[in-house]
Design goal:
83 residues, mainly alpha, 61% helix
Length: 83
Amino acid sequence: MAVSDFLKTSFEYNRMEKESLDAMWKAVSEHKQPFFDYHDRKAQLIGKKNQLDLARCLKSPVFSGQYQPQLYPYDKGGPKILS
């Protein structure tokens, strides 16, 4: 059986209509340029070529200079994950 609209199940599950998703994407598209400009400038200030380089860099704990490897026994780590 072929699927004619692959979003149909997601719309039903989330009780959402296609028009709502279209409105959200329209708002994002119309107002995203200031965010791109901000991230481009931020990348430039720290010596990165573009936003992708910036994103890779910021996700790394090593970038902040605060990386300290730590090991947690299950008794300490388990409750922390569950809280």
